[in-house]
Amino acid sequence: MTIPIARQYPPASGGTEFDGLRLVDGTLERFFSDGMDRADRLGAGYAGLWRALRSAARGGKRVRPALVLAAYTGLGGPDPAPAAPVAAAFELLHTALVLHDDVIDRDFKRRGVPNLAGVYRARAAGQGMSLEEAAHRGQSAAIIAGDLALTGAYRLIAGAELAADLRLTLLDELDSAVFASAGGELLDVEFSGTPEQPSLQEVLRMSRLKTAVYSFEAPLRAGALMAGASADALRTVGTAGRCIGTAYQLVDDLLGMFGDEAETGKSTTGDLAEGKCTPLIAYARLCPEWEQLAELLGGTPTRQDAARARRLLEQCGAREYVEDLAECYASRARAALAESALPEALVADLESVLERAVQRRR
Amino acid sequence: MTIPIARQYPPASGGTEFDGLRLVDGTLERFFSDGMDRADRLGAGYAGLWRALRSAARGGKRVRPALVLAAYTGLGGPDPAPAAPVAAAFELLHTALVLHDDVIDRDFKRRGVPNLAGVYRARAAGQGMSLEEAAHRGQSAAIIAGDLALTGAYRLIAGAELAADLRLTLLDELDSAVFASAGGELLDVEFSGTPEQPSLQEVLRMSRLKTAVYSFEAPLRAGALMAGASADALRTVGTAGRCIGTAYQLVDDLLGMFGDEAETGKSTTGDLAEGKCTPLIAYARLCPEWEQLAELLGGTPTRQDAARARRLLEQCGAREYVEDLAECYASRARAALAESALPEALVADLESVLERAVQRRR
């Protein structure tokens, strides 16, 4: 878990995908400026919400669009231009899901800075509203902004310059991703704060549904579909995506507890304070150390509490178990790629995505 | 305001539209049962959310699908079958917006019975959760369910058996409706709880954006578009829809204050308690009676308070003003229809919709 990030964009396949990402940024920029222009006619406040939405979509690593384009170009897609709106749609989907997830998690920050709900909360509090009312206003703005991003994703695909039946297939793919994410989000909601605790398997399923499908599996499949890939290639990128995504989420869990706060921008007491049901916790629940650990969950854990929790999680074997599990999914992804008939450059690209996912430190 | 509802479905155009509404119900039923089947594979809880979503979409008056079909058949659309998914999409859009609006308004009931958030809140409270936590869980479920309904609307239109370019135009129409509703919802959020109060004009604009566009204007235009209507007919149904919708909203405001609770199923102290910024209130704010009225807003008004507020709203002329305004929009709609070159049966249908909108008592 300590090897530095091996490579950065542009990836192995060369310049095409990088050009594609510029096209994606252009598409998103047009989407937001069009929204702002139209909103401006309805009032300054509405244009402000669109501006805030654009900010929410900025600064991301464009992981999902990059995967769409990697699969597309890697499987012989000639011109990235028609693929760009589809790639951009997955970024908008991500923006929407993060906005609504933050409302559900009552988060007002993301990576240390106020998120959209946080910005609107601060503004309302500055106007003299009580903190509770201001928080609700912030969350209301985030619900509305999320709806705009979510429907924007459909609109971008519907308007892409692709054959009509392909657009429909891609909308189905987007829909499957939304369907999975909503199911995962609901499981996450159900797991929090209830006495009966989910099994490790249920926690893994939740995180796969909530994140891995829309972040890895669906973008790769969308790119492959646009390239006119064979059923076999489609299945392989789907399997690889699911395994990479699950490994990514497991590493996320590890970083949330054992990561370097300065690098991750995420407090290592956060998951503890929330009493978040992560794979680490689900494993630890089966161990004799659980009694001591349970005392440290929820409330407002100190740094000492967090350090103690880390020791207990190492002692009971939870850390090693989750590291092994991440490695196991990574191996499955590697095997799927190695045995596949996918073009070499695409295999290299996806291997690079995989290694960055499991070796990242933030 | 006391004439009984003049007519019910089926409307003047005869059986076609009624058949269409049965097709709409069939489309929605398939949408939900497909969702439940797919969700069931991911867990019983998720299938339960889909069931709750189906319940949320049931029992409605199907106003929006009826308008889509009225415009479609009235302008010569031959077969209601391909129009049904588009009509159903506007019902799903309504379901989605109501779900998210209830979260934003912190409502856990609709027409006297628990809404989706209320059902999930009650269940969580029954599992021993605090009322606050249970409320948040209810709202989380409603956010997720709303996302499923919202994206479902796009999916239904994208999958309709219509020419590809027509489907795109209809998706644009849906998108314009979402865009307007989101803008109206944001204005509504901004108007509540802030010291500077919106003008009457701003309140009217808010309610037009939030409801009239997606409920009347867009469904009529969608039906007209599918029938291949002329630009002129498209403009006329749009204008009529906007005016009918605005009149409808004004009547809604009146019923919320002066309606018969037994008929409306809505407490006449509700709008007062929320301190809701309705056209009645926006008008009254300009009058000398305002000082007395302001004392009755917010908090927990009694029936006596509500009766006193009603007297003050009559005394200052707010009631008459809003009644006149509703009548003014109704007249505009009548004029637009009378001067139009729309087929007679469609004009009769829309006049009937209009009269029911302004004469309704619930």
From TrEMBL, chains A, B:
<comment type="similarity">
    <text>Belongs to the FPP/GGPP synthase family.</text>
</comment>
<protein>
    <submittedName>
        <fullName>Geranylgeranyl pyrophosphate synthase</fullName>
    </submittedName>
</protein>
<dbReference type="InterPro" id="IPR033749">
    <property type="entry name" value="Polyprenyl_synt_CS"/>
</dbReference>
<keyword id="KW-0808">Transferase</keyword>
<dbReference type="Pfam" id="PF00348">
    <property type="entry name" value="polyprenyl_synt"/>
</dbReference>
<dbReference type="InterPro" id="IPR008949">
    <property type="entry name" value="Isoprenoid_synthase_dom_sf"/>
</dbReference>
<keyword id="KW-0460">Magnesium</keyword>
<dbReference type="InterPro" id="IPR000092">
    <property type="entry name" value="Polyprenyl_synt"/>
</dbReference>
<keyword id="KW-0479">Metal-binding</keyword>
